Predict the structure.
Amino acid sequence: MKILAFDLSTRQGSIAAMSDGELVAQQEWPNDRRNSAPFFRALDEIVRAYGPPQRIVVGLGPGSYTGTRIAISAAIGLQMTGAAQLSGAPSICAITPEDEFAVIGDVKRASFFFARIIHGEIAGDIELLPPDEMSRRLCQTTLPVYTSDHLPQFAGVSLRFPHAELLATRSSRNENLARTPLEPIYLRAPHITSAWAANQ
């Protein structure tokens, strides 16, 4: 089976193609949500070189909503040109091939998420914690902890980004997949400011 996977949930974009379980192409680049050209260039190069995929796997975050929405839209558009299966998986599960680890990230508004990953799946709920509680949680855990954000305030946390190759590999075993309709993993309700009425 030809599998194409990509992730735009962090500041490093990643795309990978696999054929019958073998990695045939991968690219990574600095991901700027204001400029999607490197992603679409990589996507075009790989599809031209290896043909249309039979399965498309998208990283769903949590992370950049803008990047994740772009990835989902691109996957849907690519699927419409063929008959590929379309699925998604949490990006944080594809940070490392280790069996058990934790991932933290900045959720803004003075809060952070903590997620425990076991065998490529999120174990339990993703917790939202204020800085002091996150520091206590990190002191208590014996797991390796990773983040894709710049979080120097938390000691012992390693910087690591999702790998499209891991998304593709795990999808071939049907692990932790979400089916259509796909949407980003939201950790809280979107913060919306009502527009002022035109005539006050």
The first strand starts at residue 2 and ends at 7. Residues 71 and 77 are 10 Å apart (CA to CA).
